[in-house]
Amino acid sequence: MAAGPLLSLAAAALAVAILVPTPEAWRPTTPATPPPLPVLPIPSAAQLRWQRREVIMFFHFGMNTFTDSEWGTGSEDPSLFRPEALDAAQWMDAARAAGASLAILVAKHHDGFCLWPSAYTAHSVRASPWRAGRGDVVREFVGAARARGVDAGIYLSPWDRHDERYGDEVAYNEYYEAQLHELLTGYGSVSEIWFDGAKGKNATNMTYHFQEWFQTVKQLQRSINIFSDDGPDVRWVGDEKGFAGTTCWSTVNRSMITIGEAGIEKYLNEGDPRGPDWVPPECDVSIRPGWFWHRNETAKPLSQLLEIYYNSVGRNCVLLLNAPPNSTGLVEDADVARLREFGAAVATIFGTDLAAGSAARASSERGGPGGGFAARNVLDGCDDTYWAPTAEDGRRNGYWIELRRPPEAANRPFNVVRIQEHVALGQRVERHEVYVDGAPVANGTTVGHKRLHRLPRAVAGRAVRIWITARRGPPLLSAVGLHHDPFVEAGAM
Q: Among 6-20, 44-58, 216-230, 285-299, which stretch is predicted with the lowest mean pLDDT?
């Protein structure tokens, strides 16, 4: 039987009641507090990913490996290149053991010998007996990297002591750019490319078209980072010891830098707080005295590698650690063991945060306790959350953040203090001080992505306070950690 009019009206009213929200559902929630404005310049997404790697690897391998030299002459016979046991997967295992997520291969050094079968020169692996002339070190390298979850990078030397076009500005720049096309279109994604400014004092005069090269690179690989003295994405730190300055800004003025020019090392080492360009530093250093393998050299001791780590990663840099494969095509067992020892030591030191379980408070919190920028954010292990104070607070009293350790942890000593800025919104801290239970234990200038303070002796205490005594705008801290480095007390440092 059909429903009557009254029943139909009742059903319609019920449907409206279900579909139309009650007045309570329309009640507005408390608006979120927006983040503070950036302090320019700020990093690109690719630069941020690079910074968070912290440790990456370099592999210097080529003709010099077989001639016991660092800078070849360019006249070497390709028949010398015969790495009978080459295994790029073993190289990647060494990189992973050191904690690296990116590995860079020297595809061509100053001697001009190419580790891939370039169509633009006969001076390559194609002319060697290795793999019967059908080998390609670059292809094996990137394949092994991807199989091990490591990103790949390429070094292509501008200085070429072999090619007869070197010295002819147009012809050589066209040759170099053609090889960039080969490397950046034939091997998949490349995360970093290295442009070296090194050149011998008596080298043939040559003008490199860096700007054309840089724009070509960005056209071919949109998310790649370009390294050179001048960036534009990553800069040289100014030395080959792996040490950044005690003050180290990610910002510089690129117009003040000429690639390969002497006298700019201090500027590169420290950066420029007024620099308009975000070009953070990379610290390149070899685990051996030389960049290429030499039979009579051995790896640096663990103590020295840890010192390098503290003075690179611990000073707002990425550490680029070189491990040169030998003439058989393998990284020496002793070098692999040292890399594994280094990676394990870093994991031991920073694998336990003695600030865990602490309560955090600060001079102020942007938007109040529920504003999303609370002091407790420095303890959550996330790079994308951070403590932000109110701007007015710092003008009156100065900015500080304090960790109050739980009673059961207060007696556990620590000798490393870790401080990290939220650099996605710019680098801000100019000077800071660290106190434990009111006593000063450390101080410094810049922080950046990460600042590590190794204390002269281990301390225990309940309250750890960090004062930001000078800054470019309100400071934004993403992490504060406390760690114990047993290698110092064991005399390994």
A: 6-20
What is the distance of C-alpha 314 from the center of its chain?
11
Torsion angles phi and psi, residue 402, rounded to 5: -130, 135
- 233 vs 226: CA distance, rounded Å: 5
- In the chain, where are the structural domains located? 45-350, 359-489
Phi, psi (rounded to 5 degrees) for 98? -80, -5
DSSP state letter for 164: T
Look at domain 45-350 and name its CATH class.
alpha beta
Token pair of 96 as six digits: 């992973």
Q: How many CB atoms lie within 10 A of CB 182?
A: 18
Helix (H) / strand (E) containing 8: helix 5-19
Contacts of 398 (CB under 8 A, 6+ apart): 363, 467, 468, 469
Overall size of the chain counted in residues: 493
Could you tell me which residues are beta bridge partners of residue 318? 282
CA 127 – CA 119 distance, rounded (Å)? 12
What 3-state class would DSSP assign to 432?
strand
Q: How far apart are CA 256 and CA 276, in angstroms?
A: 11
Q: Look at the domain 359-489 and name its fold.
A: Jelly Rolls (2.60.120)
**Calpha distance 167→287 (Å, rounded):** 34
How far apart CA 301 and CA 95 sit, in angstroms, is: 17
Label residue 474 by pLDDT band (50, 70, 90).
very high
Predicted pLDDT of residue 24: 53
Asked if 263 and 269 touch (Cβ cutoff 8 Å), the reply is no
pLDDT tens, residue by residue, 148-159: 999 999 999 999
pLDDT per position as a tens digit, 109-133? 999 999 999 999 999 999 999 999 9
pTM: 0.93
| Those residues with Cβ within 8 angstroms of residue 233's Cβ, 6 or more apart along the chain or in another chain | 44, 46, 47, 50, 224, 225, 226, 227, 279
Query: Is 27's pLDDT higher than 80?
Result: no
At 247 the three-state DSSP class reads: coil
List, for residues 360-409, the tens digit of each pLDDT value: 999 999 998 888 999 999 999 999 999 999 987 766 778 999 999 999 88
Pull the structure tokens for residue 269. Answer: 């080492």
Find the farthest-apart pair of alpha carbons in the chain and give their distance in angstroms, rounded: 106
